Amino acid sequence: MSSKIISRCFFFLILLSISLGGYGQSKTPTVSIDVNLLQTEGRLPPIWEYFGYDEANYTYMKDGKKLLTEIAALSPVRVNVRAHNMLTSGDAIPGLKWSSTNAYTEDSNGKPVYNWKIIDSIFDTYIQRGMKPIAEIGFMPEALSVNPGSVSEETQLDKTKPKHYSGWPYPPKSYEKWAELVFQWVKHSVQRYGKTEVESWYWEVWNEPDLTFYWKGNTDEYIKLYDYTADAVKRALPTAKIGGPETTSPDGKSGGELLQKFLTHIVSGKNYVTGKPGTPLDFITFHAKGAPKLIDGVVWMNMGNQLRSIDKGFEIVSSIPSLKKLPIVIGESDPEGCAACPGDLHPEYAYRNSTMYASYTAAVMTRTYDLATKRGVNLSGAVTWAFEFEDQPYFRGFRDLATNGIDKPVLNVFRMFGMMQGNRVTTTSTSKQNYITIRDSSVRGQEPDVNALATKSTNATAILVWNYHDKNDTDVPSTPVSILVKGLPLRNVLLTQYIIDQTHSNAYTVWKKMGSPKTPTLEEYKILEAAGQLKEAYSPKYITPVNGETKIDFDLERQGVTLLKITW
Question: Might you name a Gene Ontology BP term for this protein (predicted)?
Answer without folding.
Answer: carbohydrate metabolic process
